[in-house]
């Protein structure tokens, strides 16, 4: 199966140090996934690689011949994936605005009927858990419901190395065991939804919101 890992940070400046703490988190996640769930395909989507226009225009608003190449390619990857892992820092008790901006460029029909997993981190003791609360509602609206287990990495700069390893005093097996609780749930649900999508196309049983918000209105 195919999974996309979204790294939702575009911070590339100092202070603070390290500037992109999320890079360490995503490297550790990838090591865990490839080591313990290597039968699947995992691809990183880094928000920093998508310098989007300041004037917001979602992917589905363009005519087919005018869609920016990067958006079209990412839309296809989202459509073909069986599940998603969202990695986010916490800003003002909320999810990363960079992650929200990137995901908001795509309609829920691309994400729907597939599971997601939430990974948050911070440089302080809470591990981004308050961001995870809002992110769960956000993913629900996209239709890729998050699994119940979540991953929080507090003081990540003291736990993970720049290369994605473990700092002295940190046990990789312990952290990988913690991560695997969430990733195991994600893959179980992804297998279940994948098998059922083969039998029943979900887009045929529920109208797809593609053009105007009125498509979601209750009967008048």
Describe this structure in words.
The structure is a single chain. The chain has 220 residues and is an alpha/beta fold. The chain has a single domain (2-216), classed as 3-Layer(aba) Sandwich (Rossmann fold). It has seven helices and five strands; from the N terminus they run βαβαβααβαβαα. Strands 2-1-3-4-5 form a five-stranded parallel beta sheet, sandwiched between helices. The longest helix is centred in the C-terminal third of the chain and has 28 residues, at 172-199. It starts with a strand and ends in a 21-residue tail after the last helix. The model has no long low-confidence stretch (mean pLDDT 91).
Can you tell me the number of structural domains? 1
Structural class: alpha/beta
The sequence of SSEs as H and E is EHEHEHHEHEHH
- In CATH, the homologous superfamily goes by the name Flavodoxin domain
* Major sheet attributes: 5 strands, parallel
Q: Can you count the helices? A: 7
Question: Overall pLDDT, averaged?
Answer: 91
Supply the CATH architecture: 3-Layer(aba) Sandwich
Report the CATH topology name.
Rossmann fold
The percentage helix is: 25-40%
What descriptive keywords fit this protein?
220 residues; alpha/beta; Rossmann fold; 7 helices; 12% strand
Write the layout of secondary structure elements.
Blueprint: E1 2-7, H1 21-36, E2 41-46, H2 69-80, E3 83-88, H3 97-103, H4 108-111, E4 116-121, H5 129-142, E5 151-153, H6 156-159, H7 172-199
Parallel strand pairs: 1-2, 1-3, 3-4, 4-5
Helix pairs in contact: 1-7
């Amino acid at each position: 199966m195919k999974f996309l890992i979204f790294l939702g940070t575009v911070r590339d400046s100092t202070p603070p140090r390290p500037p992109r703490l999320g890079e360490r988190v995503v490297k550790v996640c990838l090591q865990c996934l490839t080591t313990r769930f290597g039968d699947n395909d995992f691809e990183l989507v880094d928000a920093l690689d998508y310098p989007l226009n300041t004037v917001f225009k979602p992917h589905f608003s363009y005519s087919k011949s005018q869609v920016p190449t990067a958006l079209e390619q990412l839309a296809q990857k989202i459509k073909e994936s069986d599940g998603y892992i969202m990695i986010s820092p916490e800003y003002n008790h909320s999810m990363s605005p960079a992650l929200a901006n990137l995901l908001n460029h795509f309609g829920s029909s691309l994400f729907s009927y597939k599971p997601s997993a939430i990974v948050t981190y911070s440089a302080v003791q809470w591990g981004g858990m308050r961001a995870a609360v809002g992110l769960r509602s956000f993913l629900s609206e996209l239709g890729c419901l998050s699994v119940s287990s979540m991953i929080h990495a507090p003081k990540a700069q003291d736990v993970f190395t720049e290369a994605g390893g473990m700092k002295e005093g940190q046990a990789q097996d312990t952290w990988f065991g913690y991560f695997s609780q969430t990733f195991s749930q994600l893959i179980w649900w992804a297998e279940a939804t994948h098998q059922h999508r083969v039998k029943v196309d979900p887009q045929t049983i529920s109208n797809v919101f593609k053009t105007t918000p009125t498509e979601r209105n209750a009967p008048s």
